[in-house]
Every structure is written in C-alpha cells, then in structure tokens.
Amino acid sequence: MNRIKCIISYDGTLFNGYQVQPNQRTVQTDIETVLTRMHKGNTKRIHASGRTDTGVHAVGQVIHFDSEYNLAPDQWKKALNAQLPKDIYIKSVEIVEPNFHARFDVVRKEYRYFIWNEKDENVFSRNQHYFFPFELDLVKMQEALNCLLGTHDFSSFCASNTDVKDKVRTIYKGTINKTEQGIVIALEGNGFLYNMVRIIVGTLIEVGQGKRDILSVKNALVARDRATAGKTSPANGLFLWKVDYNN
Hints:
CATH topology of the largest domain: Alpha-Beta Plaits
Number of helices: 5
Number of domains: 2
CATH superfamily of the largest domain: Pseudouridine synthase I, catalytic domain, C-terminal subdomain
Number of strands: 10
Radius of gyration: 19 Å
Largest sheet: 10 strands, mixed
Helix content: 10-25%
Shape: globular
Order of helices and strands: EHEEHEEEHEEEHHE
Oligomer: single chain
C-alpha cells in the first residue's frame, strides 16, 4: 500500500466547502469520486490538512490517501487532473512515508485574505475578493494585527458555535500590503479556529475605518468573548495559501 500526498488548489465558489456533506457538492466528494472510480469502485477516502468553508478557496491545500497502485507521481497527477472538474487542480504529487498524515503533521499554515479596496468593483475577480469601497487606514490595521501575534486564547476570534475546547493558537506572522490584487492580509500560524481569519479581518477593517481603536482589539483578546470582536468578513476573499510540514 502506498501513501500519496498531493498539493491541490481549488476555486471554492461553487463548493459547499471542503468536507463531505449529504447531497451537496464539496471538494472532498469530487476528489473521492474520481479516486473511487480509478480503483474500480473500491471506496477511497482522502485526508486534508483542514477544512475550508463554503466559498473559501485554496492555493496550497494538502491531502493524502492510500492506494495499492504503483503509479509514479507524474502519472497520478495526469490521471487525476484528467478526470477532476476544472475548479480543482492537482499541483503536485509525492509518494510519502506510510506514517505521514496531512492533518496531524502540520506545523504551520498560511492564509491570505484579499480585499478589493477601490471605488469600482472588479467583476472579473469578484468571487476571489471582498469588495470594500471605503477608505481604510492600513497603518492602524497593521498596528492592531501586531497585537494578535504570538500565543493567545483566540476565543473572541472564533465562531461561537464551534465545539473545539482548546482555543489557544500561535500566530507567527501577520502582514497587510497593498498590491495590484488589492489589500492582502496574510497570516501564518500553527493552526486556525473556525472563522478565525475572517473574524480577525473583520475586526481589522473596523480599525481601518476608525470604528474601533487598538485598545479595543487588545481588550477583545483578553475578554475571550466573541461579542467583543468584529464582524465575520465574507468567505470569498479567503485563501488557504500554504501548509508546511517538518519534512
């Protein structure tokens, strides 16, 4: 039995998220359907570095699965991409050690959030950014983001309906830059809670508008209360950018 690791990208616009859901189109379902067909009806399960929500995209999602087939990495890539829909793409394939796990071996993840901060919408990429035509102070937003770096309990920046008990996470790096693609907010950490990045972005936008100050962000972090942080920003601006492992 061979363990296959794939780096995949997908446009999340037409998916009901990554994880399998009854009677819904998901990334996991589409990939498993192709793998099961390739294995002559024998059900194949894939494991990912983490789930993405409805409308969220991925540039560097990582999955693994097991197969009795002895195909070379380039053969796997070609065979999968030939059968997958056009909004999923296998970027690379690697045969890894049998103890590798796409989820449990993660040491760092990077998410990027794109904001189209112009007066006019860009209709050609409207599904890949959050259109926000109001003025934002990026310097203050960066100052607020700096308050969230390090290891903290991020209960205030997590969806209130999550069942995760341990909400302590570490953010290693956070940057805000203006580019041709709009404002890009990049976060690197050891892991992220449900809606954590989108809530952080929503809070930073309020800072950028002058609706909250830096102290309120610090207070929200200490409060461990979802009501003290900002709104959850839309899903379409969020990308799972990269996943790192020790090996």
